[in-house]
Write a structure and sequence with these properties.
heterodimer; A: mainly alpha; 5 helices; B: alpha+beta; Lipocalin; 8-stranded antiparallel β-barrel; elongated
């Protein structure tokens, strides 16, 4: 079971990272801001994989302790935390040599939803019986 | 007539050389200037600065600063704060597109120099004194501005969280 949770976390993390990097490229090409000092391929991939692996670990713990009936609430918590986390890019002050900080939330906020989106999307492939 | 040629030439040379001395006190603002403001909240920079600087340490009477900052160039590092600072709640950059300082007197002090003049911000003109030094072709100064004196923002509601005294640190490299 832990193997299944591990794979779901890893694959969804990779998918979320790919989505994040593609979105960053499109956003930068469309609007031109350069936030590479703060947001780059490394920390997008790291953040997405870490978040999805954490979801996988918590999901495995629910299974291990026979608390699968709480899985719906677990997913609600993931969604709420993803939403709540957008306050960070809105409130953060960037280094002063970075121009157009107004465009920073538009880059980062969608990325905060990619891990949950990827994890939920591939869920049916890993829990066919549930 | 020939007797007059040399006295006229000498006079003309002296006359035009006087302009050379006047011109030598004039400086151009070079890239790499820094106009920072800091407080408990907010802190940031203005990235657009221009003006005329005439400074001669040996002739302070002929020295003068006439400089301005574009308030729309404010960067606090945070998009929401930038938008609010530019809005009519604070700097109102549409109505007041420049923060100007025009010196009326520059004098020598123990630590360097000080420029006394008028700071025109947000439609309010007040006399201030800015202490500064000049070394390695760079003007460096530091002073404090109370935003309420210039009617920039209020002191109640959300504005009460915004510091009233802002420390301004200026570093302006110049070239001839």
């Amino acid at each position: 079971m832990i193997q299944k949770s591990f794979m779901q976390g890893l694959i969804s993390g990779i998918l979320a990272a790919v989505a994040g990097v593609i979105y960053m490229k499109i956003y930068q090409n469309a609007l031109g801001p350069d936030f590479h000092k703060i947001v780059n391929i490394g920390n997008i991939a790291g953040g997405a994989i870490f978040a999805c692996m954490l979801f996988g670990l918590l999901s495995w713990l629910l299974e291990k302790f026979n608390m699968l009936k709480l899985k719906g609430w677990f997913y609600i918590v993931i969604a709420v935390l993803s939403f709540a986390s957008i306050i960070y890019p809105i409130s953060i002050s960037l280094p002063l040599d970075i121009q157009n900080p107004e465009l920073f939330p538009g880059l980062v906020i969608p990325m905060h939803f990619f891990p949950a989106l990827a994890y939920f999307t591939i869920e049916p492939f890993f829990n066919k019986g549930n | 007539m020939k007797k007059l040629i040399f006295p006229v030439l000498i006079g003309a040379t002296l006359f035009f050389s006087a302009f050379t001395f006047m011109r030598s006190a004039s400086w151009k603002i070079a890239d790499g200037y820094s106009i920072k403001f800091s407080s408990s909240d907010p802190s940031g920079v203005f990235t657009s600065f221009k003006g005329d600087i005439a400074f001669d340490a040996n002739n302070l009477g002929a020295s003068k600063f006439n400089v301005s900052i574009d308030p729309a160039s404010i960067n606090t590092g945070n998009g929401m704060k930038n938008t609010k600072a530019k809005s009519d709640q604070y700097l109102d950059v549409t109505k007041y597109p420049a923060i100007k300082f025009t010196s009326s007197k520059i004098s020598k002090t123990a630590a360097g120099y000080e420029a006394t003049g008028t700071l025109d911000m947000h439609g309010v003109q007040k006399q201030i004194t800015i202490p500064f030094t000049f070394a390695n072709n760079t003007f460096t100064g530091s002073f404090t501005v109370n935003r309420v004196d210039y009617q920039v923002g209020g002191t109640t509601g959300m504005a009460s969280h915004t510091a009233t005294d802002l420390k301004i640190d200026i570093s302006v490299p110049v070239t001839k």
